[in-house]
């Protein structure tokens, strides 16, 4: 893992893309260097304010990242508040009720069948191949998670720390476990998005095929009428 510096973070932000690998790499790097939370906030805010406005879709995804960090206590609350302030300004996102979340989910589901340009067969094949290596099927990572040392799972074992060396050793084990789980959770979130996208692609592909079949059947019926 490369050393932290403001210049390094600026470079990583400038090179950030929408790819799963790019997002995961930056997220893990920030988690690894969370002790540098203050300069991270400074750079985050400065980079966001460089543009006249931030795309709403981008804000939504960045907000999701902040929510995950908040749930997992990756950064202190005051740090997260500063990041939210940089992202949203004075317009802080309101917490949604359970009913609002369900409405959004239903709207997303109904939008799956909305007409759009059908994907090419090659695009479908690639999307299916990508899912073959998805996080949910990664047996090696499953085994690594199942084999995490008991020291990082049982809080009661903290009482067994007797000196600085054992404390540092436990801290290293916990950090490694956090990195592993953060990476896996990020991959799972990306897999969910990929599966939703594939569902939309398949729906559009099937719609296009049905329309083409109906058109050919109609032409065949017309042709048969002339042959009678």
UniProtKB/TrEMBL annotation:
Gene3D superfamilies: 1.25.40.90, 6.10.250.2560. It comes from the Eukaryota. The keyword Acetylation applies. InterPro entries: CID_dom (IPR006569), ENTH_VHS (IPR008942), RPRD1A/B_C (IPR032337). Pfam families: CID (PF04818), CREPT (PF16566). GO terms for molecular function: RNA polymerase II complex binding; RNA polymerase II CTD heptapeptide repeat phosphatase activity. Residues 1-228 form the CID domain. GO terms for biological process: mRNA 3'-end processing. Keywords: Acetylation, Phosphoprotein. Belongs to the UPF0400 (RTT103) family. Associates with the RNA polymerase II complex. Interacts with phosphorylated C-terminal heptapeptide repeat domain (CTD) of the largest RNA polymerase II subunit POLR2A, and participates in dephosphorylation of the CTD. This is Regulation of nuclear pre-mRNA domain-containing protein. It comes from Muntiacus reevesi (Reeves' muntjac).
């Amino acid at each position: 893992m490369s050393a932290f510096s403001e210049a390094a973070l600026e470079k990583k932000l400038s090179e950030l893309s929408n790819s799963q690998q790019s997002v995961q790499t930056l997220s893990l790097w920030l988690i690894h260097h969370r002790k540098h939370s203050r300069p991270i906030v400074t750079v985050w805010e400065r980079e966001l304010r460089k543009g006249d406005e931030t795309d709403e879709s981008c804000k939504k995804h960045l907000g999701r990242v902040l929510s995950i960090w908040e749930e997992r206590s990756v950064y202190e609350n005051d740090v997260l508040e500063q990041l939210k302030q940089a992202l949203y300004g004075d317009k802080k996102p309101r917490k949604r009720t359970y009913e609002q979340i369900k409405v959004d989910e239903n709207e997303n589901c109904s939008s799956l069948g909305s007409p759009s340009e059908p994907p090419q067969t090659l695009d479908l094949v690639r999307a299916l191949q990508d899912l073959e290596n998805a996080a949910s099927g990664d047996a090696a990572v499953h085994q690594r998670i199942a084999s995490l040392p008991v020291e990082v799972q049982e809080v009661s074992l903290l009482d067994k720390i007797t000196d600085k060396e054992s404390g540092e050793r436990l801290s290293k084990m916990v950090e490694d476990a956090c990195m592993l789980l953060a990476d896996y959770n990020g991959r799972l979130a990306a897999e969910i998005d990929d599966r939703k996208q594939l569902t939309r692609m398949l729906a559009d592909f099937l719609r296009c095929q049905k329309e083409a079949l109906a058109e050919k059947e109609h032409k065949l019926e017309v042709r048969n009428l002339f042959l009678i």
